[in-house]
Amino acid sequence: MPPVYKIKLKMIDKFLSDQQEPKAVEKVYSRLKELLPAGEETLYIATQKKPLVNILPDCIAVTNRRVLFFTPANLGLSIKFLDFTWKDIADVSVKEEIIGAVFSVTTTKGAEMGVDYLPKVQARKLYQFSQQCREEERKRVERQEGHIINIPAEQQPVAHQPAPAPVAPPVAIPAPEPEPVHIPEPVVAAKPDELTEKLKKLKVLFDNGLISQEEYNAKKLDLLSDF
């Protein structure tokens, strides 16, 4: 084994404790090193394990600031991703099935993203880390709001009231002439946003079982990247 590859394995070793796919984790970890700013830490990486062919698995990464969904593209030569910060996530859920589990997140705007065929132990770890991060985000918001509310009165800005203007003697104002009546023009309904309509149609196909979770994720990423 080349020395460089040994170093890479050592760096991602902590993300392979639950039988994750090493090559998939390596790709995701390399991408995360390029994407994440200073102070953002990768907490967990989960990899899809399809029952028959698992050559190009989807992956999920959880950091202390966001959750990222990775989907291979161009026959594995590239990788697309979609991320959601914790302040924008309304809920996380895990649904355990006969084969694996589905991990999904719902945003405050109602968007949903998930990955199926995750090993159950990995889906549970994702849920645990996600709940911890959401709790930390809630405490951070409470501390920020409490700091704003509890600013001492002497430190709060004082609003300066302008001096009252001198009162002018009353002036007789002639009655205004009646204005012509304007008939409002019919309102034309705005056309629905093209991207929103496509996402709604895609969600209907998924809800009716016409496409799989994997196909739904891939098509959704394609639509978002096109816009």
TrEMBL record:
<feature type="domain" description="YokE-like PH">
    <location>
        <begin position="39"/>
        <end position="131"/>
    </location>
</feature>
<dbReference type="Pfam" id="PF14470">
    <property type="entry name" value="bPH_3"/>
</dbReference>
<feature type="domain" description="SHOCT">
    <location>
        <begin position="197"/>
        <end position="220"/>
    </location>
</feature>
<dbReference type="InterPro" id="IPR018649">
    <property type="entry name" value="SHOCT"/>
</dbReference>
<dbReference type="Pfam" id="PF09851">
    <property type="entry name" value="SHOCT"/>
</dbReference>
<dbReference type="InterPro" id="IPR039519">
    <property type="entry name" value="YokE-like_PH"/>
</dbReference>
<protein>
    <recommendedName>
        <fullName>YokE-like PH domain-containing protein</fullName>
    </recommendedName>
</protein>
